């Protein structure tokens, strides 16, 4: 959990984390990718990335606090996923400190607080306690997520992702009501373009029951898009593509979260097998090739793409990013 690692109220030590030296081949690879593609990882606080992203081994706490500038120096990384706010909403000041650590051309993919996107309130160990009264709340979405992110990140804001947690079984029979509430939430959000011209609202789900014509209509009507979530709880890319086609033309937001070999509840298993996240353990060339085709088609038509990769996709997200970049170029 990112929130447990450090407080952004602590002033980072300037330049205390240095980037790894990257070869000319990686720089050349990055230069061949389209400007409209923003590729990155899910967070950046992993000591195992020493020599891949960092010049040497650093502690997780130091990387969380001081590593973002070094991360943004990597030739391929023009975005990063910030999941920390899922556990506790971030403030404008915290977002501002993130923005100050990256170059002008960098953009953030921000995950909405669970206060808004989880139907249940949970204990510290994730156990469901009771229904969440703020689930899909219009006021909570604006005040705890959209407004502070806009104010703090400004034009460095890329994608704001409402990742809706798995629903209780009984709620899956209430999809029309839930989609109507989601529609109201999305319609209520303040406009982004005045402060963040490239920003997009995206909705990611973990129950395929959401994927209906009513869901598509709610996204289209409010100018939001579908976040292509690559996770074992969801169908493969080929079965999610009709959603993207129905919303075309528009930007792509994709989060490659978890290798399907671990099953729907395999995060802990993936963590145990892949840590310290310094090599590809379970390469998934089929998913990679399919995602590369979607990216190439999107940016080839002049649309933007925000793509973040988790360590739990193949074992090491920096290496996954390199492999995906090669796969994108191979589609030409």
UniProtKB/TrEMBL annotation:
Source species: Alcanivorax quisquiliarum
The protein's name in its UniProt record: DUF72 domain-containing protein
Pfam family, one: DUF72
InterPro entries referenced in this protein's UniProt entry, alphabetically: DUF72, UPF0759_sf
